[in-house]
Fold this sequence. Notes:
Number of domains: 1
Number of helices: 6
Largest sheet: 6 strands, mixed
Helix content: 25-40%
Order of helices and strands: HEEHHEHEEEHEEEH
CATH topology: Rossmann fold
Distance between the termini: 36 Å
Shape: globular
Number of strands: 9
CATH class: Alpha Beta
Amino acid sequence: MEREDIIEIFTKTSAMLSGHFLLTSGKHSNRYFQCAQVLQHPQYTQELCRELATKFKNQGVETVIGPAMGGILVSYEVARAMGVRSLFTERVNGKMALRRNFTIQPGEKVLVVEDVITTGGSVAEVIDVVKSMGGEVVGVGVLVDRSNGKAKLGVRTEALLTVEVETYDPEHCPLCASGMPAVKPGSRQTV
């Protein structure tokens, strides 16, 4: 898939939003990628995740894992394209963890996936979970890297779409200064 094809899918599904957004990281931005708008369409999800899977096809991946919520469908579809197992992590008392009797064996080759990364914080937590169980993280695959490659995760990272989106600390946010109310369109809460 070409970059233009990916942008077309995000545009036609209204997954790229403009406004004043409070990000999970606590920063503010004028752009937001709501990948759930893409992931509600199985044909686009399958197409995008199949493309992401090809970037890791010769890495010996045995398991794909993603953080709840955004990474669950991505994990499932990438794993399906690779013919391997899919897992997801969840927050327990504010900390990422494997639940539901999911396990990772020592030495198991694991691909970590996510829908969108900004700072890479959630993905870094998933990497820590995998490593704490003795798994080997072969890489990270994301649909959208909105850090423009600045999120350093310590492993090979591949994104279908890499974009530079301005983010602001709340105390220096020009959107706040202009009086525009901030919204948090993700799944955790609204402002």
